[in-house]
Amino acid sequence: MCTCFMETLSRRLRAALLAAAVTVLVCGAVPVAAGEVEWKMLIDQANLHLQRGSLQQAELFAREAIAEAGRSFGPGHRALDQSLATLGLVLRFAQRYPEAEKELRRALELREKSLGPRDPATAILVNNLADVVQAQKKYAEAEQLYRRVLVVFEKSYGDDPKTAAALNNLGATLHAQGRHAAAEPVLRRALAMKEKTLGPNNPSVAHTLNNLAQVVAAQGRQAEADRLTARAAAIHRGGKRASGA
Question: Would the pTM of this model clear 0.90, i.e. be above it?
Answer without folding.
Answer: no
